[in-house]
Amino acid sequence: MRVVIVGGGMAGLVLARGLIHRGVAPVVLERMPSTAVVEGPIMLPFQAYDALEEIGLLEPIRAAGRDVPPHRDGLPVAIGVGRRLVLDHLREGVDIRWEHEVTGLLRDGDRITGVRARGPEGEREIPAHIVVGADGTHSRVRELAGIEAELTVSDTAFVSFRSPARCEEAFLIEFTSDGRQLTLLDWPGGSAGGWQIERPEGGRDAALAPGVEAFKRAYLRLLPRAAAAVEPVTELTYREVTEVRCDTWWRPGLTLVGEALHAMNPEAGIGSGLGMADAQALAIAVGRHRDDPDRALAEYERWRRPAVAPYLAVGSQGVRVVRGGELRDEERWPPPA
Ligand SMILES: Cc1cc2nc3c(=O)[nH]c(=O)nc-3n(C[C@H](O)[C@H](O)[C@H](O)COP(=O)(O)OP(=O)(O)OC[C@H]3O[C@@H](n4cnc5c(N)ncnc54)[C@H](O)[C@@H]3O)c2cc1C
Fold first, then answer.
1. What is the DSSP letter of 316?
2. Among 87, 110, 84, residue whose Cα is nearest residue 276
3. Could you check whether the bond before residue 70 is cis, i.e. omega within 30 degrees of 0?
4. DSSP 296-313
5. Which ranges constitute the DSSP H helices of 92-239?
6. H/E element holding 41?
7. Ligand 1 centre and the CA of 222: distance in Å?
8. Tens-place pLDDT, residues 313-330
9. What does the mean pLDDT of the chain come to?
10. Burial class of residue 92, CB neighbours in 10 A (0-12, 13-18, 19+)
11. Whose CA is closest to atom 52 on ligand 1?
């Protein structure tokens, strides 16, 4: 079975490793160069653990990160760890064609039979029994396959920062009256945090206009235990997020995993876990039906759709702890004029 995975992010690479684990050697096409900078931490949630355990990476990744309590059966609810470190582990032994961007699909009637990719040596056709779009929120593969998706810009946006200073506690969180979060995650490279705000009308400019020092004061008024970590911060980033929902999971010869299939607002803190678990389910299905691509894809959908459905039904707002009432002025960012 020849599997071509488009996208070398966490979902695509976990799929690649899960297939290799089952004796199927896929090709990963990644448009970025191998040297692309990947900074900062991720909070790897427990939903990722089975997929990482199966390919022997849960322990090394956990050992290089920091447990986020509470623990159950000896495992933490999440792990604060460098994104780069996770990707480096996942890349080991995978045939990744760097700087290869997928620009088209090959077809035989209704069946997708491969991809067209542009790389350093020009454009080429790469045949496949299964093409997997693991190419993120704005998936080109999804679009080329004609799989309809509902894309929504979330009403929650993020003002975030990274700090070289560590935090004594693994994870700090404070909820504003409307249930949005201020968070701080400790990891071996320092700490990283942010404030989830109602997306302001003026976007980035409005969110960043008051400046870093004003932000730090307002953030620390609500989360004073973060003081030591926040003190050295000199830069903020603003980010809006697009959420994705797809009703169709596959077409003959092609399917999607991770954020190409369903992207939630990171407020939920589980995106990587859902993508890795998609990848594991698909690897299992392909391993069981390596002579029958469509049966593998149908089985993937049958197992995985009901597992993802509750998360999508509740949405990222499901993690909010809403106290109700009007937001107090100090809970608003940017501050009211
Ligand atoms: C601000 C932010 C914070 C987050 N924090 C967390 C967190 O703490 N915990 C958590 O679990 N999740 C978090 N997430 C979500 C998490 O990052 C993703 O779920 C995870 O990275 C898996 O994504 P993916 O592999 O599906 O897609 P991506 O990571 O987007 O990977 C897609 C890859 O496809 C490549 N690509 C795209 N188009 C093409 C093409 N045409 N040809 C070839 N390659 C292509 C891209 O270059 C990219 O490498 C966060 C997300 C954001 C935006």
1. G
2. 87
3. yes
4. HHHHHHHHHHHHHHHHHH
5. 140-144, 203-208, 212-222, 227-230
6. strand 41-45
7. 30
8. 998 888 888 888 889 999
9. 97
10. exposed
11. 266
The CA distance from 142 to 135, in Å, is 9
Rounded to whole angstroms, the Cα distance separating 136 from 315 reads: 18
Tell me how far the alpha carbon of residue 204 lies from the centroid of ligand 1, in angstroms. 21
The radius of gyration of the chain from alpha carbons, rounded to an integer in Å, stands at: 21
213: tokens are 């020092």
Distance 114 CA to ligand 1 centre (A): 23
Task: Tell me the per-residue pLDDT of 222-254, one tens digit each, with 9 for 90 and over.
Answer: 999 999 999 999 999 999 999 999 999 999 999
| HSE-CB of 262 using CA atoms within 13 angstroms | 25
Ligand 1 proximity of 32 Cβ (cutoff 6 Å) = yes
In whole angstroms, give the CA distance from residue 179 to residue 168.
25
Ligand 1 atom 15, closest CA: 271
Atom of ligand 1 nearest to the CA of 103: 41
pLDDT value for 124: 97
Tell me how far apart the alpha carbons of residues 327 and 318 are, in angstroms, rounded to a whole number.
19
From the CB of 266, is ligand 1 less than 6 Å away?
A: yes
Ligand 1 within 6 A of CB of 11: yes
Cα–ligand 1 centroid distance for 291 (angstroms): 30
Contact 253 CB / ligand 1 (< 6 Å): no
Task: State what percent of residues in the chain have pLDDT above 70.
Answer: 100
* Selection from 31, 40, 39 nearest residue 8 by Cα: 31
Task: Give Cα 165 distance to the centre of its chain.
Answer: 25
- pLDDT tens digits for 65-105? 999 999 999 999 999 999 999 999 999 999 999 999 999 99
Contact call for residues 256 and 149 (beta carbons, < 8 A)? no
Tokens representing 320 are: 């909010």
CA torsion sign for 252, 258, 264, 268 is: positive
The pLDDT, as a whole number, for residue 267 is 87
* C-alpha of residue 151 to centroid of ligand 1, in Å: 16
Ligand 1 mutation target, pool 272, 280, 304, 312, most atoms within 8 A of CB? 272
